[in-house]
Amino acid sequence: MTALNENEVAALHEALDDEYHAWATYDQVVHDFGMVRPFSNIRDAEARHIAALLSLCEQHGVAPPSNPWPGRVEQYPNLREACTAAVEAEIANAALYERLLASTDRSDILTVFRNLRDASQERHLPAFRRCVERRQ
Questions:
Q1: Residue 61 domain-assigned (yes or no)
Q2: What is the CATH number of the domain that holds 91?
Q3: Which phi and psi angles does 130 have, rounded to 5°?
Q4: What is the dihedral of CA 24, 30, 33, 35, to 10 degrees?
Q5: C-alpha 55: how far from its chain's center?
Q6: CB 84 within 8 A of CB 132
Q7: Residue pair 12/56 in contact by the 8 Å Cβ criterion
Q8: pTM of this structure
Q9: d(CA 21, CA 5)
Q10: Which residue, 42, 29, 21, is CA-closest to 78?
């Protein structure tokens, strides 16, 4: 297996940073408001996303960045605002993965990026949209 090029390493790091940020944000919401859904279960999904990316780093010999986000994310005054922000974050996440897909032709990385994008769009985004609707 050939080493990853600079763009591929940067893409893995950027994906990890985004997943770290999502995990820390949803963890903060759980800390502030309790084990409220969908934040509690999607926080766990974000941990699985991080694990998938860390596995890619390990497989390709890439040193992963540490998570700089715990304690450094926005706090929301209520769940409606948290849900609204989460909708925006999941939309941005899809755009991020669409861009990152162009950074490589390696099937293992492409598969993980697509799976994470699809989970965000097909499961997380609808859950957070329902969250907003319930709090109107």
A1: yes
A2: 1.20.1260.10
A3: -65, -35
A4: 170
A5: 15
A6: yes
A7: yes
A8: 0.95
A9: 24
A10: 29
